[in-house]
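Hi V.,

Quick status before I head out on leave. The structure for the redesign project is tokenized and pasted below; the design run finished overnight.
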């Protein structure tokens, strides 16, 4: 059955996709609008999509809070350094494991995959980190999770399916070392999968809080997520809204404004990162997930 050269499947599929987009996009628009709207309009339901009585009180309180700025700076550092370490380690593991000439690669790959299903557990991991002297340092949040086995598998599959063996053989015949082949030939052809790895690792570091909760006691090293936990879960919101100078109802309204502002501030960098990598993201995921 066709309607003006458009199949029924295309129509139904288009409707479903529009609904899915609405379900995904509406919460984002709502939170952004609520963060700059009058809190009373948000709580009363008068603001349901676009901002009402625009105010930036929530952002003023957020950016005037020294803890939020400290956490934001720390999270940016942890995400940048951690993602760089993750990508380098993943490439250095995946590339040799993708080479048929690498002897023992199947045994090594089996040992790596084994760790996906069996681990030492939380307490032994903490003891290792403590005995290495990493507690209360940035490296406690980076080194224990320096590489993801799943991402090694994805990148290894990408190299096996997307990098022609003939190119590597030609480079070897010309006298190129393995490291030179990796840096001069393989990496320039790995844009899509590298974009995927950067996005996966960056999102993981940006949202991580459990490792910091376990390994850090110095508040100067806290990431943003721990400060958000204190504010939103442990009831420290009143300190940010000058509760002593406001009525109870006004305090509740101010807390609502700060809550939405914190959500926007905490997620905006990652939301901005995805459009920059989206061009490579789909291709990298598909090629890295399926061996053609």
């Amino acid at each position: 059955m066709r309607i003006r050269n458009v199949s029924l499947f295309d129509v139904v599929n288009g409707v479903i996709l529009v609904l899915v987009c609405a379900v995904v996009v509406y919460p984002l628009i709502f939170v952004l609008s609520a963060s700059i709207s009058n809190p009373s309009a948000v709580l009363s339901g008068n603001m349901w999509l676009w901002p009402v009585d625009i105010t930036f009180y929530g952002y003023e309180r957020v950016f005037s809070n020294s803890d939020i700025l400290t956490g934001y700076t720390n999270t940016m550092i942890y995400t940048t350094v951690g993602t760089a370490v993750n990508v380098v380690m993943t490439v250095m593991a995946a590339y040799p494991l993708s080479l048929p000439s690498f002897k023992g690669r199947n045994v090594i790959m089996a040992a790596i995959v084994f760790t996906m299903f069996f681990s030492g557990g939380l307490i032994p991991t903490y003891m290792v980190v403590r005995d290495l002297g990493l507690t209360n340092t940035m490296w406690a949040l980076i080194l224990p999770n320096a590489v993801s086995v799943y991402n090694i598998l994805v990148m290894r599959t990408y190299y096996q399916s997307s990098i022609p063996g003939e190119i590597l053989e030609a480079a070897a015949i010309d006298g190129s070392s393995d490291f030179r082949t990796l840096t001069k030939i393989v990496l320039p052809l790995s844009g899509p999968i590298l974009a995927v790895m950067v996005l996966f690792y960056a999102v993981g570091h940006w949202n991580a809080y459990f490792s910091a909760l376990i390994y850090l006691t110095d508040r100067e090293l806290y990431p943003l997520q721990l400060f958000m936990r204190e504010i939103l879960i442990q009831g420290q919101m009143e300190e940010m809204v000058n509760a002593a100078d406001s009525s109870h109802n006004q305090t509740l309204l101010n807390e609502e404004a700060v809550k939405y502002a914190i959500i926007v501030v905490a997620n905006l960098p990652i939301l901005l990162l995805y459009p920059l990598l989206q061009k490579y993201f789909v291709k990298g995921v598909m090629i890295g997930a399926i061996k053609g």
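Above is the designed sequence. Residues 248-289 form the longest helix (42 residues).

G. will cover questions while I'm gone.

Best,
W.
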